[in-house]
Specification:
heterodimer, A: about 200 residues, alpha+beta, Sortase, Chain: A, eight-stranded mixed beta sheet, 2 helices, about 30% helix, elongated, B: about 700 residues, nine-stranded mixed beta sheet, seven-stranded mixed beta sheet, 13 helices
Chain lengths: ~200, ~700
């Protein structure tokens, strides 16, 4: 007679503890996901500070300087879009890893065309606000500067992109994923074309 | 709380509302995802941007010069001689110059150019490339008819013909030969008809980029712009059976017991897919093919020796496989997924008698096991978990991983076949050390390079595979993993002959390839040789399943064939190119060597071209010449509208006979981190958790 309520009480305690543990687990998963998510823009932001320094050093030494000693990429240019107050250091390589730190210059052997790619939700988030006619300034590692003006935008599947082989004026293309606001990976890319002035 | 039951219920409602709100947030995330994936099927649906490129160039007006192509193939034994006749017909009222880009097999050697103008046949001569171009341009400017064949790539050629008068027809015939491929007792002849797929800008200097592309024909022009007719005279030297043409309908005529004539059933087909013909021998598979040619006082030999198809013991030897997988940051995204899928697939093909190990590297390195372990189900399950957990991060330090993979505790063990599968995008710089390591520590290991992603460093990987006596395979995208890995791993399952050696009794021969590979099931060893004379015996020996095997052939049995010397020359050019990659020769020496071979054997190479000039001036002085590059058809299966979208209409306005603007295709990288999604998901979990906790606390209090 006495034992029965005790058993019932124990079951009730377990019944209370288990969902609580699950719910706390849910909170922990949520927090760790958020931390992982927050790391990405944080890394992107910190890297740009280091890259900025490395770029200034590169300018002085007239040769690429690694931003941190284990980096397998080097700064090659700085692009800025004065209207939106954007200034970023561009990395060599075009690889996914470099893109976590900054826009990357795609390896092309065509001297008249430069193609840069960056993530739509970090470095190239400004592409949303970019407009036809905006001026983009590019400073190369040798100190040489070149201004480009955006002539138009193009939306294209990643595997259906082409650039003119012999344009009348040097071209700059900034590419990022499209649609700019989406959270899932998709096949479309937004390309902003700019012509040298 | 019991005092306020009413309030408690309203709190419950509040919580219900909160949960609904969270559900709504989740829904918003979901629709965002849908938004991104929906557009996959219809990329033009959201054309809010302005398209300014004309892709690779589109031609919407019918070209003034029409082209028809006829291919006449004679297969004798294991060599195919192909005559390609291109008919240029000028339908306009102007004097025209036309050029046409077309593909040939990679091991094909073009050696003859004939131009037929009316009743006259003008024969082309081999010249150095620049000289040939100068002769052609001079003749063109003087109003003479001229033809030129240039090699843009080992498998890509361009024919130009100048001064085709109004309404006139000029025939340009080139001839080439190529060895017939043989695998597992099956012979295959492949005639490429279409310049397919984009080329990779990372490997090719832009200087000649314009040479390897041509405008594409708009589909509205129909598919009969450059029709092709094909006839194959098949005389394989045995009674052919199982004739298959997988891509085109054909008719087969039986000439005699051993000869067949194959024609396209539809007469002419559009040049938008390659032609392939396969056959087998009706009787037992022949094991030896021996051909000879006397050329300029030298003797040439081609020997194709096929070892017995299977290990006589019936068992493929057990393997010791080391998988090296690159998980550096540059592999991020699709490459990493493709590499993982490839590795998982390979793990699935291990048998209980095999041993294996996995090494992963970025700027650090991990060995899954200290040394190779038996491929038991437990170990494979462990390896699978290890592979699935890999994430792309960090720098690329390939050398320690390579050294670790080459570490061989039992270098004299002949029971296990040691194979190293290297999965990487090859994004590294210390090539010299890598090559030196393979040369010094290669030992009995065979290195198979698997290039992951669209732009792997193919030069390095090919060189590493060659030095490691393995092969290079490129896995471009996730969809290709299964097909490419199956083919590679099936082949690796059964190395039939190892430690191949070739010896000659009698007059010495200069044989290629010098470094003999392992032979796998059904593959022949094809040797090409050059010497003062052919005499004595050629002996091929090796190990089959650990037991010595050898086969001798009497060189005096060789059958005369007029193709052998040129095939030898073509193989020698490939050797020179290989030495160029390996950094053993510099560019100038290699170019000069290729030019010398091209001139001596009258072959079109990267340094030599064939040029033909009709000395009688044709075009009256003062009339102008219009230049036209003939459009190509898109490869079958490619969607014109998807490729060029709305620009075709624009091109139409400016199109006409002018060459369209040329452009280069390129893949764009994945450019979204999706961190907002991650944070959002995290927030959703957190809020659900907190909400649930709050609800429970209130319940408990009540």
């Amino acid at each position: 007679m006495i034992a029965l309520p005790a058993v019932r009480k124990g079951r009730r305690a377990l019944g209370r503890a288990l969902p609580n543990t699950l719910l706390i687990g849910l909170c922990i998963i949520g927090l760790s996901l958020m931390a992982r998510g927050a790391m990405i823009p944080a890394k992107a932001w910190v890297a740009q500070i280091l890259l900025d320094r490395a770029f200034d050093k590169s300018l002085l030494q007239h040769k690429p300087v690694k931003p941190w000693f284990w980096a397998d990429t080097v700064p090659v240019a700085r692009i800025s879009l004065p209207r939106l107050g954007v200034s970023q250091v561009v990395l060599s390589g075009g690889s996914g890893q470099a893109m976590a730190f900054g826009p990357t210059l795609m390896p092309l052997r065509n001297p008249h065309v430069s193609i840069m790619a960056a993530h739509r939700d970090t470095h190239f988030a400004f592409m949303k606000q970019a407009r036809k006619g905006d001026v983009i300034e590019v400073q190369f590692i040798d100190g040489q500067k070149q201004a480009y003006r955006i002539t138009g935008f193009q939306i294209v599947r990643w595997d259906h992109f082409a650039y003119p082989r012999d344009p009348a004026r040097p071209l700059l293309a900034l590419t990022t994923c499209y649609p700019v606001g989406a959270t899932e990976h998709g096949p479309l890319r937004l390309v902003a074309w700019a012509e040298a002035q | 709380m019991p005092a306020f039951p009413f309030l408690s219920r309203s709190r419950h409602r509040l919580l219900l509302g909160l949960t609904l709100l969270l559900g709504l947030v989740a829904l918003i995330f979901l629709t965002d995802r849908l938004c991104a994936s929906d557009v996959e099927g219809d990329p033009d649906a959201i054309g809010s941007g302005t398209l300014m490129l004309r892709g690779k160039g589109v031609m919407t007006a019918l070209p003034a010069v029409r082209l028809g192509t006829d291919m006449d193939v004679t297969v004798s034994g294991q060599i195919a001689r192909v005559r390609v006749t291109q008919v240029f017909r000028n339908a306009s009222s102007q004097w025209m110059e036309a050029s046409y880009l077309y593909p040939l097999p990679e091991d094909g050697a073009v050696d003859s150019l004939k131009m037929v103008v009316g009743q006259r046949v003008i024969i082309g001569h081999i010249k150095r490339r620049e000289e040939a171009r100068a002769i052609y341009e001079k003749a063109r400017d003087e109003g003479k008819k001229a033809g030129l064949v240039e090699s843009e790539r080992p498998n890509l050629f361009r024919n130009s013909v100048a001064n085709v008068g109004p309404g006139e027809t000029v025939l340009v015939a080139i001839e080439y030969q190529a060895p017939v491929r043989q695998l597992g007792g099956e012979y295959a002849l492949r005639l490429p008809l279409v310049v397919g797929s984009r080329y990779n800008p990372a490997q090719t200097p832009a200087a000649d980029a314009a040479n390897v592309s041509a405008p594409l024909a708009h589909p509205a022009l129909g598919k009969d712009i450059n029709p092709v007719s094909i006839t194959v005279h098949l005389a394989p030297g045995f009674k052919p059976a199982n004739l298959i043409s997988p891509y085109h309908r054909v008719t087969v005529e039986q000439d005699r017991t051993e000869k067949r004539t194959i024609r396209l059933a539809d007469g002419e087909v559009p040049a938008n897919r390659d032609f392939e013909l396969r056959w087998r021998s009706a009787s037992a598979d022949p094991t030896i093919g021996l051909f000879r040619e006397q050329h300029d006082g030298d003797a040439y030999l081609m020997a194709a020796i096929t070892p017995p198809g299977r290990d006589p013991s019936g068992n493929a030897p057990p393997r010791d496989m080391t998988f090296v997988i690159d998980n550096s940051g540059s592999m991020g995204g699709e490459s990493m997924d493709a590499a993982k899928a490839s590795l998982l697939y390979a793990l699935g093909t291990l048998r209980p008698q095999d041993r294996f190990n996995i090494i992963r590297f970025d700027d650090t390195m991990t060995r899954l096991f200290n040394e190779s372990v038996a491929a038991s189900p437990d170990q494979i399950a462990l390896a699978r978990r290890f592979a699935e957990g890999l994430e792309a991060n960090g720098g690329t330090e390939m050398l320690p991983a390579l050294t670790a993979a080459l570490e061989d505790n039992t270098p004299n063990d002949s029971h296990f076949v040691r194979q190293i599968l290297f999965l990487t995008d090859g994004n590294i710089s210390n090539e010299k050390e890598m090559m030196a390591t393979i040369a010094a520590k290669g030992g009995r290991s065979r290195i198979f390079m698997i290039g992951i992603g669209s732009a792997p460093n193919q030069y390095l990987m090919r060189r590493m595979a060659e030095a490691g006596r393995g092969t290079f395979t490129n896995v471009g995208s996730g969809e290709e993993v299964a097909a490419k890995m199956t083919a590679l791993l099936d082949r690796l399952k059964a190395p039939v002959v190892r430690e191949l050696k070739v010896s000659i009794e009698g007059a010495p021969l200069d044989l290629t390839p010098r470094r003999l590979p392992d032979l796998y099931a059904g593959e022949p060893l094809v040797l090409l040789g050059k010497g003062k004379m052919l005499s004595g015996k050629l002996t091929v020996s090796g190990l089959i399943g650990g037991k010595p095997w050898s086969q001798s052939v009497d060189l005096s049995d060789a059958i005369d064939s007029p193709a052998v010397a040129k095939l030898w020359a073509n193989r020698r050019i490939a050797d020179v190119e290989a030495a160029r990659w390996a950094g053993e020769t510099n560019d100038d020496t290699a170019d000069e060597a290729i030019a010398q071979i091209g001139l001596a054997y009258s072959l079109v190479t990267s340094q030599t071209s064939l040029v033909a000039v009709d000395e009688t001036p044709a075009r009256p002085e003062g009339t102008s010449l219009t230049r036209e590059e003939l459009p190509l058809l898109l490869p079958a299966g490619w969607d014109f509208d998807v490729l060029f979208g709305g620009q075709a209409a624009q091109a139409g306005k400016q199109g006409d006979a002018q060459p369209a603007e040329s452009a280069e295709a390129m893949d764009l990288p994945q450019t979204a981190t999706g961190y907002a999604g991650l944070i959002g998901q995290g927030l959703l979990f957190l809020m659900l958790g907190l909400g649930g906790l709050a609800l429970r606390r209130r319940e408990a209090r009540a």
